[in-house]
Amino acid sequence: MEAKYLQVIAKYQEDLKGGLSLLYELYGHSLYQYSLKNWALDEEECYEVLYKTLETVGKVILRNEFDSERHFQNWLFKIHRNNTLMAVRAKMAKEQIEFKLVDWQDEYAATEEDSEGIGFERHPVLNISSTEVYEEEASQNPLFTALEKALQEISETDRDILLLRMNNYSYDDIATMLGIENNQLKVRFLRAKAKVEKKTLGIIKENMS
């Protein structure tokens, strides 16, 4: 029997709509379940992500070459994971941006091996809740604006790690979701958080000067 990915490619070569339908039939359920089970998205949001993935794949599938079913699935999953991450980030930004450093005091109890050489500075608590944000327009809230800008100045992976930890995902879960090694992930989180704190306060001071 012909490999599933070859069936999909052949169908896309015949008809875009038919290829899209077959792609959904063969891979849609597993992609949808990945978003639903692993991320803080509801059913409707997961379907929106799935449709985005199908749309993206439809535009580029015939430009790519695959040497195996595994190769195709890895490529497809990477597209879907990126779309899922974008949806999660958009949802978090819409609902709340919340830094509660007091709640993370246990993170500073890292072992000497974990924290050696990180060079943290202890800053005042940064805390932005959704209530505060919506009571005051984001453009008029200097702390919100500074924090948002600071988050954009760090790497995408570090930003994902911060947002996921803020939503109480474990380091093991984060490593699996982002496809990175768990080793030193805690240290990377602490460094990213310290960097965002420093950048946020620097932006606020600059705006006040």
TrEMBL record:
This is RNA polymerase sigma-70 factor (ECF subfamily). SUPFAM superfamilies: Sigma3 and sigma4 domains of RNA polymerase sigma factors. InterPro entries: RNA_pol_sigma-70-like, RNA_pol_sigma-70_dom, RNA_pol_sigma70_r4_t2, RNA_pol_sigma_r3/r4-like, WH-like_DNA-bd_sf. GO terms for biological process: DNA-templated transcription initiation. It comes from Mucilaginibacter gotjawali. The lineage of its organism: Bacteria, Pseudomonadati, Bacteroidota, Sphingobacteriia, Sphingobacteriales. Gene3D superfamilies: 1.10.1740.10, Winged helix-like DNA-binding domain superfamily/Winged helix DNA-binding domain. GO terms for molecular function: DNA binding; sigma factor activity. PANTHER family: RNA POLYMERASE ECF-TYPE SIGMA FACTO, RNA POLYMERASE SIGMA FACTOR HI_1459-RELATED. Pfam families: Sigma70_r4_2.
